[in-house]
């Protein structure tokens, strides 16, 4: 019996970048204060057609959408703080000075844990802590490790937002949008945010 196996290949979706992370929170305004005061996000206008309490924040080329869910309060049987586990789900942010991050967290009396990742003599410092709803945040200097694509069929797009990672050691195709165009679009989007108020 001969069986024919048909190989099916799909093209990846036409993604451009990460747009936002959406989080369920107990109290929108407690979380807004945290993301503004601790992480430096800015509150931005959200569509007025929404009929539920929430808030949108933006900075660093990414949005955070907070959705209030009062039923989360029912899940808090234990008021003890959760252990900070670096292997838990988390959102990670790049920083320029990990020691300054630790000092600021200590000034705010926030609990955190640290970790160090080492690859071929290159070290990455990580700081982990929780937001008011227990979501894990990581702050790191992760750009110390070069990005190297493993499968040869995967062509990574160049870093289009923020600073250019010169350690990206991959062959990238010629994309129609260059660095200056990306920078101009990023500045335009920030200007548009200022107009929204």
TrEMBL record:
The keyword Chaperone does not apply. The keyword Zinc does not apply. It comes from the Eukaryota. GO terms for molecular function: lactoylglutathione lyase activity; metal ion binding. Residues 17-142 form the VOC domain. Transmembrane segments: none annotated. Keywords: Metal-binding. This is VOC domain-containing protein. The lineage of its organism: Eukaryota, Viridiplantae, Streptophyta, Embryophyta, Tracheophyta.
